């Protein structure tokens, strides 16, 4: 009898312990899933300050340039004072999917809630669970302070009326699981259209030209539709997967700028299945043409053969664009521009490259000015900045030479004034001045 009584008393405890274990296991799975989703959504890109230490991740402070001023990423760490530590599930979901803050304030669309609205509630809450599992960052990031009238957040209600289609993305039963997964990743989580879709007059995404290329100021987010000249219509499925995974496809492209950051922080960490799903969906969207691109961007240019001949005339060579190329570029990209080496650490060819083959040469100029740096799982990819070595006139001259020799000659229109504007926008240094006051 005593044994039965004891067993009867222990059974509820055992059930409670089992339920607790199930909850803990479920919570651990939710956090793990949330970590993957936060990576796919590249949350750290806007919510972690440049150069922030590991323990300050998601503490906010990343400056996002906009036509109306700088917008700073908010603290979304688990800190209860400055972060989301005391936010309810509904408050967090409303911010992510509806663009409304904890206090009811309208959020600026620098937060891509026009894409995140397509996410499921379950996925948003998994991201929240992951963020709350991390140490909080007890610090207030820089405050967004736009000039009037853009500091009137209530005005975003009118912006939403024109540009915000609220609602979770539904699967298309006529399409494959792979296609539907790719659409969810591209249109919702990875919010690819935020950069790659042009903007309308109200600065909303022009979805009639989805993925037809976006203007990022000093950078261009290239057309990624299947158009064979303006887009990626001549890329294979494997080309796309390789590019998203490594940031490089020999004879086609290597990532720089915001795309390099997206690959570094997000895309390289996705499963091969998800990368294939992204490629499947992107290759199916309507093609958008661009009259400026008369042939595929990766089919322009040819090797240089005149560098050694130019050296025979030392005086002329010292003042020529080919001299700038020889002294600043040839060591890594080769005298012919064909690149040096093979595999992951190879220096890319300058011809048959989507950056030099673009009719708009802003990305080429920005790479010369700011360099390239990708922290990849296979190692580091780096090109130095030439901002502190070359003047605006020299960079304009060099970029014109590269466009004419290795890319689309239509891109050889950049001027020193254009370079100066881009240098200022990126807050990059000038070469040091010599004794007579001129720049080197």
Top keywords for this entry?
440 residues, mainly alpha, Cytochrome Bc1 Complex, Chain D, domain 2, two-stranded antiparallel sheet, 18 helices, 8 strands, 41% helix, globular
Strand order of the largest sheet: 1-2
Tell me, what's the shape? globular
Helix content, binned percent: 40-55%
Strand content: 5-15%
Mean pLDDT: 89
Q: From N to C, what is the helix and strand string?
A: HHEEHHHHHHEEHEEHHHHHHHEEHH
The computed structural class is mainly alpha
The main pleated sheet reads as: 2 strands, antiparallel
Say how many strands there are.
8
Cα end-to-end separation: 98 Å
Spans with pLDDT under 50 lasting ≥5 residues?
314-318
Subcellular location: Cell membrane
Pfam families: Cytochrom_C
Keywords: Cell membrane, Electron transport, Heme, Iron, Membrane, Metal-binding, Repeat, Signal, Transport
Domain Cytochrome c: 29-135, 177-286, 316-406
Describe the structure.
- With 440 residues, this protein is mostly helical.
- Among the domains are: 140 residues, no CATH class; 129 residues, Cytochrome c-like domain (Cytochrome Bc1 Complex, Chain D, domain 2, Orthogonal Bundle).
- Strands 1-2 form a two-stranded antiparallel ribbon. It has a two-stranded antiparallel sheet with strand order 3-4.
- Helix 9 crosses helix 11, helix 14 crosses helix 17 and helix 17 crosses helix 18.
- The longest helix is centred in the first third of the chain and has 39 residues.
- The N and C termini lie far apart (98 Å).
- About 1% of the residues have low confidence.
- Keywords: Cell membrane, Electron transport, Heme, Iron, Membrane, Metal-binding, Repeat, Signal, Transport.
- It is found in: Cell membrane.
- This is Gluconate 2-dehydrogenase.
């Amino acid at each position: 009898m005593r044994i039965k009584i004891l067993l009867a008393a222990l059974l509820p405890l055992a059930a409670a312990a089992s339920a607790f274990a199930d909850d803990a296991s479920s919570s651990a799975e939710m956090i793990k899933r949330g970590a993957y989703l936060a990576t796919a959504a590249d949350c750290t890109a806007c919510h972690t300050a440049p150069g922030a230490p590991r323990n300050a991740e998601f503490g906010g402070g990343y400056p996002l340039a906009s036509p109306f001023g700088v917008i700073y990423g908010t603290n979304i760490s688990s800190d209860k004072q400055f972060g989301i530590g005391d936010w309810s599930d509904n408050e967090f979901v409303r911010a992510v999917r509806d663009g409304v803050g904890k206090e009811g304030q309208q959020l600026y669309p620098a937060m891509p809630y026009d894409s995140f609205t397509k996410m499921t509630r379950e996925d948003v809450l998994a991201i929240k669970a992951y963020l709350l599992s991390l140490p909080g960052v007890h610090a207030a990031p820089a405050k967004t302070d736009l000039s009037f009238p853009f500091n009137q957040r209530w005005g975003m209600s009118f912006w939403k009326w024109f540009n915000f289609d609220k609602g979770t993305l539904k699967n298309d039963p006529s399409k494959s699981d792979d296609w539907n997964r790719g659409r969810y990743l591209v249109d919702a989580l990875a919010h690819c259209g935020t950069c790659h879709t042009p903007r309308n007059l109200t600065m909303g995404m022009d979805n009639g030209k989805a993925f037809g290329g976006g203007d990022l100021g000093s950078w261009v987010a290239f057309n990624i539709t299947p158009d064979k000249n303006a887009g990626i219509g001549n890329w294979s499925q494997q080309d796309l997967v390789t590019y998203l995974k490594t940031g490089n496809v020999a004879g086609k492209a290597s990532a720089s700028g915001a795309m390099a950051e997206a690959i570094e922080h997000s895309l390289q960490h996705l499963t091969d299945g998800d990368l294939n799903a992204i490629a499947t969906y992107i290759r199916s969207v309507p093609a958008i043409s661009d009259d400026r691109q008369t042939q595929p961007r990766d089919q322009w240019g040819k090797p240089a053969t005149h560098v050694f001949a130019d050296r025979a005339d030392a005086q002329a060579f010292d003042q020529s664009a080919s001299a700038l190329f020889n002294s600043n570029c040839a060591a890594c990209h080769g005298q012919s521009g064909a690149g040096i080496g093979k595999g992951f650490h190879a220096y890319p060819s300058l011809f048959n490259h989507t950056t030099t083959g673009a009719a708009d040469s802003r990305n080429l100029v920005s790479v010369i000015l700011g360099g390239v740096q990708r922290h990849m799982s296979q190692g580091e990819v780096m090109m130095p900045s030439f901002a502190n070595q070359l003047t605006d006139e020299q960079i304009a001259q060099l970029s014109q030479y590269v466009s004419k020799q290795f890319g689309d000659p239509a891109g050889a229109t950049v001027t020193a004034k254009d370079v100066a504007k881009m240098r200022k926008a990126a807050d990059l240094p000038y070469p040091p001045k010599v004794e007579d006051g001129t720049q080197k």
